Amino acid sequence: MGFLDFPFAAASDSVDARRFPRHQEVLRYIQAFARRFHLDGLVRLRTEVLAVTTKDDDEGSSWRVRWRRNAAAAGEQEEEEEEVFDAVVVCNGHYTEPRTAADDIPGLDAWPPGKQMHSHSYRVPGPFADQVVVIVGASNSGADISREIAGVAREVHMADRWAPAATCRRLPGYRNLWLRSMVERADADGTTVVFRDGSSVRADVVMHCTGYKYSFPFLLTAAGDGDTAVVSVDDNRIHPLYKHVFVPQLAPHLAFIGLPFKVIPFPMFQLQASWVAGALSGRIQLPSEEEMMEDVRALYSELEVMGWPVRYTHCMKHSQFEYDEWLAEQCQCGGEAGTRTVEEWRKDMFNATRKKKLQCPETYRDEWDDHHLLEQAYQDFNNYL
């Protein structure tokens, strides 16, 4: 998952040298990256962006950015300031605004907060001791949390959107963990959930492992007379975006980095950043606004034909490497057009790990048989160490 030119490998100051480390080691890596490329001085910590708006004047379009420094921790008075910039790149991530299934499951919206929660608030399994827990969602968070909670809970029922309606089976190695079809409805009294097969359980708590919403509350950009937003979020689709990055009407002066999900994040987002930087510097020429909009419409048509839900517009689990190579070609990252920069071992390792996780969900972190790929990786790492 490391950046292309800064290996994510165990170091002398590692706090968790395992192949699948905890978040503390990921933080150490990011901090080391910032030090290596002298980024610390370019980052304003404890600063909240309040508003981003366009500013039209005789010198052309620019951007007003109003922000507030959180000085409470330092015992200082909070202050608001406004600055003007030539361009804005939105990189606020998409793992802070929880998305729940309460709107999709009849009756669940009536359950009080104490009876339902989002995985965003989960920390440790202890509070679920001897409880019956229904996990809505069976992707990464749902699968990991279900197994962890099963160690203390009385029963754990993991509801999978993609499971056939008749699904109700106990997972191997567990006496109290079941895979179920999706929840069909919930009784308004806050006690019972009913699955698609008609069976039901009395639940102490429902946990939503249903992902997150894209949210840009600070982005107040509007077009024309202000009635039509230049950028909108519709069922987790940010519209319109050329190649998930540029807003055609305002390119290259408004861009987004880090929207795709179910991908290897750091290499992809590094390539996106290189593309944006090249476009802003004038080194890379973007297509016309109409050409970019045509590409957006073509993507939507393709997703519709595939039956892909709107909320999965930025899901790139099947196309990430093709997209990475396209970005690398646009950036000419290797020095000339067409040069590959995403190593084959990185792709092979991703695919092998994904397969291993499905086959051995309990042990894939500590048992692997792709030593030849690790050897290739470390050979490449030597170019940067």
Structure characterization notes:
Helix content is 25%, strand content 22%. By secondary structure, it is of the alpha/beta class. The model is unreliable at 222-227 (pLDDT under 50). It is an enzyme of class 1 (oxidoreductase). Its EC number is 1.-.-.-. Pfam families: FMO-like. GO terms for molecular function: flavin adenine dinucleotide binding; monooxygenase activity; N,N-dimethylaniline monooxygenase activity; NADP binding.
Structural class: alpha/beta
Q: Shape from CA axes?
A: globular
* Helix percentage: 25-40%
Low-confidence stretches: 222-227
Topology:
Blueprint: H1 23-36, E1 47-57, E2 60-69, E3 79-85, E4 88-90, E5 97-98, E6 116-118, E7 132-136, H2 140-149, E8 155-160, E9 168-170, E10 177-181, E11 183-186, E12 192-195, E13 200-202, E14 205-208, E15 212-213, E16 222-223, E17 228-229, E18 232-234, E19 237-239, E20 254-256, H3 265-281, H4 289-306, H5 320-331, H6 344-359, H7 371-381
Parallel strand pairs: 4-20, 6-14, 7-8, 7-14, 8-10
Antiparallel strand pairs: 1-2, 2-3, 5-15, 9-10, 11-12, 12-13, 16-17, 18-19
Helix pairs in contact: 3-5, 6-7
Brief description of this entry?
This protein has seven helices and 20 strands.
Features of this protein?
385 residues; alpha/beta; FAD/NAD(P)-binding domain; 3 domains; 3-stranded antiparallel sheet; 20 strands; globular; oxidoreductase; NADP; Flavin_mOase-like; NADP binding
